[in-house]
């Protein structure tokens, strides 16, 4: 038993990190913001923490904390101009931001180590820390989702006109969503830098986006269960389907396409909605006849 | 006493004068009607009041406070609720959740309590759900509480939208074609709810096509045609006005 | 020297234009971001390469690449984007992006397998290497060919859209899909044609880039995808003429940046510009088209 756990610990750690990044990405999508920028916040958190701990000699906890805050600050600043965009325009702007961050990381060699990356970071973070971080984030996101904020997010995501007519300020809610995304992204970026011995620019580029999007597409944009399911699938796929390992990218691509066409809301969300449907139908048959007969 | 007042409100779209100098008052205690043929500018007017469209000229005030520079959510927070011509519910959310979101502007929990999941925030959420259930009962929707709103029949969806608007306890209620497509029985029962709300102190404006419904329900009726008011008064006066008859029958 | 840089920049800008036009055409008509466009561009280069290796003349290989990529593009539409149309707008938008990312992944991985992650080059002599001098400038036969080809293709596209009845249908669907459907325009065939054209043009662009740098590798589409964003936003999403102008400007700007700025700086400036333009002028430098904004006082 202990052998099994020890052998699979890296996989579990990787799962926890992927899950954290997925939550960072999900929280903005949940509020109806078409942002893919969480990669940029994680990048800042990772490099910030690595620099502060390795070059500036700060204790690890401070490094991680500051990395988190850097992510949060960046996301707040970014939310200001992005507030006026919607849909694909927002998406492209955030893509530009991610690419900009990667380009900056490649360019700022004295600080970041350039293309070679920031290397030889002593490992300070292990499974325990990652697990604690994930559990805390899940608790906070859950609290958020059953509160007024979560209700505002859901309304904005489904219909911005309705939300506005009820007094939901898209500016305020979107800013909150961005800051949440930045803090979570920064946190897990910082944790990753303290876990993985090195940080390099392309870690937070297109590949990061594809993996986190895949986790959310598979799982769902709304429920907290979604990213857990999505990340698990993404991590376990190469392990379970070893003969397919060579074709992993292709399999991921095909699965993504099939899942998004059949269940655009994600597997977990669609399942949860189906459960809700069943319960509702059991309690009250669908009202098809209005009282008093047809108009 | 609540008064929503429009003064010489104008809005053009390119060359089209959608609303061309409309002045009217909507007061609490009675139901005011706004009728007019298709394309007369009724929906534009609603969107102007609600903050979705920018006002070209003129003023819109609620108890003296001007609304024209406020955005839609700010207007809503001043106490103006509206329904939509094509029903807009949150399709994924349950009927109860759709009504609970109506309480949004009254929620008191501070930000940190919501973010940290403090007991006070959780308690408020529970209380709101209870209030939501009471409201659903009032509108005859109690058994549909868990049903995803997108799956209801049309008449029931209308009621959910109404319950949501009432949940926000507005001072002004703008109803955009609330009984379109309903039979007389349904329309009448909904009309009774509007009258009740007006008696309780809301300023209710009903924009409708169904002139018979408006005549039965409203004490004051305004008639819009081509962006201008061509008549106003009691339903009886307005229905007999030759200009109104011409507008509805003529070209 | 400066004018030489400008000339080189114009040529690479011409290739960007070909790539960006296809991307923009799809966006104009279907309002979706086809993130697989870069992979299709890369596939065009690959197919032409295998054609040439297999003994075909370059022209024929190019033609086969065009048709294949056009078809792949249409398949992506038919079995991808079209199937999403029944969902809500937000779901469809998000889903379209994800589908195109997935399709791009599949194409890229196939190319990676096929090429064994190696960089491929066209065999020597695929395209004659000749230079001409004049007015103090140096231009290659390839560059002249590219310029001519792009001019002809853009002119053909403009003619198609403006003067043929089918082109008018494409424009009608781009402006108002619902009204077009009521007028009896078959939007499905409009979508298929636009995807085919976009795919074919991407293939040509891919082959030209492959010839220009004589390198073909499975990741070659990605940087062009990003440049396409810049071009398409600057020129205005859906604005085809704007895309052409913006492409040429980008080509020149890049050439000058490569010559006068430290390496890596060019990318930073380009993406920063993109971000800034989106914030202040989401409709691009030339306006036209409507960028959706939040709810309130339009």
Task: Please give a structural write-up.
The longest helix of chain A is centred in the N-terminal third of the chain and has 29 residues, at 2-30. Chain A has helices at residues 2-30, 38-55, 60-82, 87-107, 109-112, 127-145, 148-158, 160-165, 170-195, 206-219, 225-240, 248-262, 267-283. Chain A has one domain (7-283): Orthogonal Bundle (ABC transporter involved in vitamin B12 uptake, BtuC). With 295 residues, chain A is an all-alpha fold. Chain B has 251 residues and is α/β, with parallel strands linked by helices. Chain B has 2 domains: 3-79 and 170-249, 3-Layer(aba) Sandwich (Rossmann fold); 93-163, no CATH class. Chain B is 39% helix and 25% strand. Chain B contains 10 helices and 10 strands. A 6-stranded mixed sheet of chain B has the order 6-7-8-3-9-10, with helices on both faces. A 4-stranded antiparallel sheet of chain B has the order 2-1-4-5, covered by helices on one side. In chain B, a hairpin with a 2-residue loop joins strand 4 and strand 5. In chain B, helix 5 crosses helix 6. The longest helix of chain B is centred in the middle third of the chain and has 20 residues, at 119-138. The mean pLDDT of chain B is 89. In chain C, strand 1 (131-134) and strand 2 form a beta hairpin. By secondary structure, chain C is an all-alpha fold. The mean pLDDT of chain C is 85. Chain C has a single domain (2-125, 134-280), classed as ABC transporter involved in vitamin B12 uptake, BtuC (Orthogonal Bundle). In chain C, 50% of the residues are buried. Chain C is globular and about 55 Å long. Chain C has helices at 2-30, 37-53, 58-84, 89-115, 141-163, 165-175, 177-182, 187-213, 221-235, 240-260, 265-280, and strands at 131-134, 137-140. Chains in contact: A-B, A-C, B-C. At the A-B interface, helix 6, helix 7, helix 8 and helix 13 of A face helix 2, helix 4, helix 5, helix 6 and helix 7 of B.
């Amino acid at each position: 038993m202990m052998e099994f756990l020890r052998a699979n610990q890296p996989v579990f750690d990787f799962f926890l990190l992927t899950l954290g990044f997925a939550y960072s990405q999900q929280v903005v999508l949940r509020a109806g913001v078409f942002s893919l920028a969480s990669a940029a916040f994680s990048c800042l958190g990772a490099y910030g923490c690595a620099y502060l701990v390795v070059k500036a000699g700060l204790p690890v906890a401070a490094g991680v904390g500051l990395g988190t805050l850097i992510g949060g600050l960046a996301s707040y600043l970014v939310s200001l101009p992005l507030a006026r965009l919607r849909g694909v325009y927002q998406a492209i702007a955030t893509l530009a931001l991610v690419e900009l961050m990667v380009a900056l990381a490649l360019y700022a060699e004295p600080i970041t180590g350039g293309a070679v990356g920031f290397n030889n970071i002593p490992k300070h973070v292990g499974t325990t820390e990652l697990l604690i971080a994930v559990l805390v984030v899940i608790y906070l996101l859950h609290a958020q989702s059953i509160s007024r904020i979560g209700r505002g997010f859901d309304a904005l995501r489904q219909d911005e006109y309705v939300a506005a007519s009820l007094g939901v300020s898209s500016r305020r809610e979107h800013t909150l969503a961005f800051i949440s995304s930045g803090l979570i992204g920064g946190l897990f970026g910082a944790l990753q830098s303290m876990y993985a011995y090195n940080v390099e620019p392309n870690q937070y580029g297109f590949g990061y986006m594809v993996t986190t999007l895949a986790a959310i597409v598979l799982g769902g944009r709304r429920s907290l269960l979604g990213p857990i399911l999505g990340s698990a699938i993404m991590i376990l796929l190469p392990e379970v389907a070893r003969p397919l390992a060579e074709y992993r990218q292709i399999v991921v691509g095909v699965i993504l396409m099939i899942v998004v066409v059949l269940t655009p809301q994600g597997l977990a969300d669609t399942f949860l909605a189906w459960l809700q449907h069943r319960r509702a139908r059991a309690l009250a048959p669908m009202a098809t006849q209005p009282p008093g007969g047809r108009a | 006493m609540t008064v929503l007042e429009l003064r010489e409100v104008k809005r053009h779209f390119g060359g089209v004068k959608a609303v061309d100098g409309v002045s009217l008052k909507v007061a609490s205690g009675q139901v005011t009607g706004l009728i007019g043929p298709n394309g007369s500018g009724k929906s534009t007017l609603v969107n102007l009041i609600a903050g979705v469209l920018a006002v070209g000229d003129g003023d819109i005030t609620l108890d003296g406070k001007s609304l024209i520079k406020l955005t839609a959510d700010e207007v809503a927070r001043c106490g103006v609720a509206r329904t939509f011509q094509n029903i807009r519910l949150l399709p994924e959310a349950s009927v109860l959740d759709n009504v609970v979101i109506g309480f949004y502007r009254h929620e008191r929990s501070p930000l940190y309590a919501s973010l940290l999941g403090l007991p006070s925030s959780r308690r408020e959420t529970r209380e709101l759900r209870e209030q939501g259930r009471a409201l659903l009962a009032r509108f005859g929707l109690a058994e549909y509480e868990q049903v995803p709103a997108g799956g209801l029949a049309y008449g029931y969806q209308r009621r959910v939208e109404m319950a949501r608007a009432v949940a926000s306890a507005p001072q002004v209620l703008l109803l955009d074609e609330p009984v379109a497509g309903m039979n007389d029985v349904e329309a009448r029962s909904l009309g009774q709810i509007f009258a009740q709300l007006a008696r309780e102190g809301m300023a209710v404006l009903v924009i409708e096509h169904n002139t018979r419904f408006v005549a039965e329900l409203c004490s004051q009726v305004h008639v819009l045609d081509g962006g201008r008011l061509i008549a106003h008064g009691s339903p009886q006066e307005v229905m007999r006005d030759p200009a109104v008859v011409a507008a509805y029958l003529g070209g | 020297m400066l004018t030489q840089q400008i000339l080189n920049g114009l040529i690479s800008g011409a290739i960007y234009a070909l790539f960006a036009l296809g991307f923009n055409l799809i966006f104009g008509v279907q309002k979706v971001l086809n993130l697989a466009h870069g992979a299709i561009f890369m596939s065009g280069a690959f197919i032409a390469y295998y054609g040439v290796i297999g003994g075909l003349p370059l022209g024929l290989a190019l033609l086969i690449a065009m048709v294949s990529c056009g078809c792949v593009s249409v398949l992506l539409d038919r079995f991808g984007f079209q199937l999403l149309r029944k969902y809500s707008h937000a779901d469809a938008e998000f889903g379209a992006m994800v589908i195109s990312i997935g399709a791009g992944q599949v194409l890229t991985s196939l190319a990676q397998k096929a090429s064994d992650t190696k960089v491929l080059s066209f065999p020597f002599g695929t395209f004659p290497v000749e230079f001409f001098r004049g007015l103090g400038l140096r231009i290659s036969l390839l560059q002249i060919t590219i310029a001519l080809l792009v001019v002809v293709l853009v002119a053909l596209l403009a003619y198609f859209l403006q003067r043929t009845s089918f082109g008018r249908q494409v424009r009608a669907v781009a402006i108002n899909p619902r009204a077009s459907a009521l007028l009896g325009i078959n939007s499905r065939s409009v979508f298929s044609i636009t995807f085919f054209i976009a795919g074919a043009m991407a293939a040509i662009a891919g082959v030209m880039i492959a010839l220009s740098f004589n390198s073909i590798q499975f990741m070659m589409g990605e940087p062009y995808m990003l440049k396409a964003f810049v071009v398409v936003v600057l020129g205005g999403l859906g604005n085809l003429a704007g895309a052409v102008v913006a492409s040429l400007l980008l080509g020149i700007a890049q050439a000058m940046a490569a010559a006068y700025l430290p390496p890596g700086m060019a990318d930073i400036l380009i993406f920063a510009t993109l971000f800034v333009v989106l914030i202040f002028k989401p409709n691009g430098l030339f306006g036209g088209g409507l960028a959706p904004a939040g709810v309130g006082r339009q």
